[in-house]
# Entry
Amino acid sequence: MSGMSGMASQAGEPGEPGGPGPAMAPDPRLVGAATLVFVADLRAPTLDPADARHLLDVLRLRPGEPVVVSDGAGSWMPCRVSPATAGRSGRTAEPGSIVVADGEVVVQPAVEPRLTIAFAPVKGDRPEWVVQKLTELGVDTIVPIHTRRSVVRWEGDRSARAVERLRRVAVEAAGQCRRPRLPEILPVSTIGDLADLTGVAPALAHPGGGRPTLGHRVVAIGPEGGWDDSELGGGGSTVGLGPTVLRAETAAVVAGALLCALRATLIAPLA
# Structure
């Protein structure tokens, strides 16, 4: 395939403070692609049945239209819909011949520092919404947590099913926003275990807390009833997210947006 035998190219590094940070200059090939799909092997991109149907039956892409395939770990490759798909549907096309390479593999470096948002799930489909938005923003690790005041508790088989559902949501969101590096969705945890999982003591989002900075690489969002006094008194730091009391799902997205914007130098920390 064209471009596959040479050295993989490398995407741009984050900008200097005040400069065009990484979120401000996505590769034009990512922006111009009809979609991004994840495959196991970039050198022989084979689409799974759901992606094949999405490309050919939902998006109705035609031969020659640009798409991007990614391994989910930061490497991606521009492709085009193959002429072999002409007249075929997602159910009848050969999964290994739906896209063909149209350039070399691009390696997008991981951005530092890694950012983690932990959140206590609430009722309904709000947890999926939170994961979708955090994925779009660029958060690296997402952790559902149980707290003392949690109303929604995912345990046993339900926990495994819920986390798997969140991982599917992250894959769909990453494809839509052209993010080649998937976020890590960890199993349900607790505040006490977050430091061991991430290697960083979490800061608890709480009204009246300090300003968020990149020193707060792990921020935890409590349930609708807020943190228990014992959780607030555990010796960790707190961060504030503004002058109003936010819904739990809104707070998770605001925390992710602020930290990702600081990391991308889209906003500057206050002196």
Q: What stands out?
A: The chain has seven helices and 13 strands.
